[in-house]
Amino acid sequence: MTDSRKQYLVPMIIIGALFFIFGFVTWVNGTLIPYLKIACQLETNFQSYLVATAFFIAYAVMAIPSSYVLNLTGYKRGMAIGLIVMAVGAILFVPAAQSRNYNLFLVGLFIIGTGLALLQTASNPYVTIIGPIESAASRISIMGICNKIAGILAGLIFGYIALKDADVLEQRLLTMDASTKEATLNELASRVIVPYYIITAVLVFLAIAIMLSSLPDIDDSGDDTKDGNKSPMGKSSVLQFPHLILGVIALFVYVGVEVMAGDTIISYGKSIGIELSTARFFSQATLGCMLVGYVVGIILIPKYMTQATALKLCAISGAIFTVLAIVTSGGLSVAFIALLGLSNSLIWPAVWPLALDGLGKFTKIGSGLLVMAIAGGAILPLLYGSLSDAWNAQQAYWIMVPCYLFIFYFATKGYKAGKA
User: Fold this and answer.
1) Is the Cell membrane keyword given for this protein (predicted)?
2) Going from the N-terminus, what domains does the chain have, and what CATH number goes with each?
3) To which H or E segment does residue 400 belong?
């Protein structure tokens, strides 16, 4: 057992660094939404939440192609390619900021999402299958800690750079003449240029480091018909695994609610009268709650709690916190949105191993389908933005309740579908 752990310790450290990058570029979106709404003078919430849509829709478009790329390149080279693609997207933020072109920002976000789709398709199953399946949720929880620490840092850094004086700036913009307003908005947009130069350089460096590393490839393409119920005996298509399909749906709605909890909370706080100078820290509260949940998962899974049990508890608490966020008001309502981070923390690490269990040679394509489900982060927040324009930002959170109920179904029956 000790030797086995040593074998995947170095790969875990390398993948942990990748998950840190995932977290940094993903969770900065929560700050980019209110920032770009000001800098690009967007008129509606629907427009501003296109930030999440452009980023996460790349997963739907590129997840399956990513699976085929990995079949050709293997995990290691696939990860390096993903990092280079992300670097291309990051460098596009420079001309986007210089021209204050919202569409170009969205293109950059889509390209970053494309690179992440390839990285996620490789890294998540890698963590799942590199060690015992029953402790996969614990390993993914460790990756989640790397991800959320990066997210907290991203929000703090970009919040300070982009939104430190946003409240005063918004008031000043109302009284400025056209030329002064244009110059002020150009200065605001230029604040992200240096950070994205740095992000681009880090991504290129990591791509080179991955290629030069000792990260081993895992061969999951062989004959998987030798270990009873764990093998895809008689299966000719990945679509013949009902538990995987239900897992894809569960992951779709989960990513939707996770992104809403993390990316809408700043704008929600502003909508109920909280200044941006305070609200810009709310995403860190959500991520902090997720961090606590990951630590709990590492301690409890699988020694004291199964992955399925953790998933049930997360789904139930998520539905409860959502309802409480809707029926309360002020800072208490915001606190319940932040607590959704605790509910969301163990859903991702529990769904992946439960959905991929027994896929054998179909693991890469199954992973591709699960990564495709990350598009829930593109569609559900956009729906939330539309509903918040039509109703209000608080009542729009009702769309999260049925999402948690479906996750509860997957945790009770869905993950066992077709395994009898």
Assistant:
1) yes
2) 2-214+238-416 (1.20.1250.20)
3) helix 400-412
Alpha helices, DSSP H, located in 130-222? 136-163, 166-173, 178-190, 193-212
Q: How far is CA 341 from CA 281, 293, 294, 358, 399, in A?
A: 14, 8, 10, 30, 17
Cα 65 to Cα 197: distance, rounded to the nearest angstrom: 28
Is the peptide bond between 302 and the residue preceding it cis, with omega within 30 degrees of 0? yes
The radius of gyration of the chain's CA atoms, rounded to the nearest angstrom, is 21
| Per-residue confidence (pLDDT) for residue 219, from 0 to 100 | 61
Cβ atoms of 322 and 256 within 8 Å: the answer is no
pLDDT in tens, 222-240: 444 444 444 556 678 888 8
Instruction: Please give the structure tokens belonging to residue 284.
Output: 């860190």
Burial class (CB in 10 A: 0-12, 13-18, 19+), 309: middle
Q: Label residue 135 exposed, middle or buried (CB < 10 Å: 0-12, 13-18, 19+).
A: middle
pLDDT digits (tens, 9 = 90+) for 379-391: 999 999 999 999 9
pTM: predicted TM-score of the whole model, two decimal places: 0.81
> Is residue 187 packed enough to be buried (19+ CB in 10 Å), middle (13-18) or exposed (0-12)?
exposed
Structure tokens at 335: 């606190």
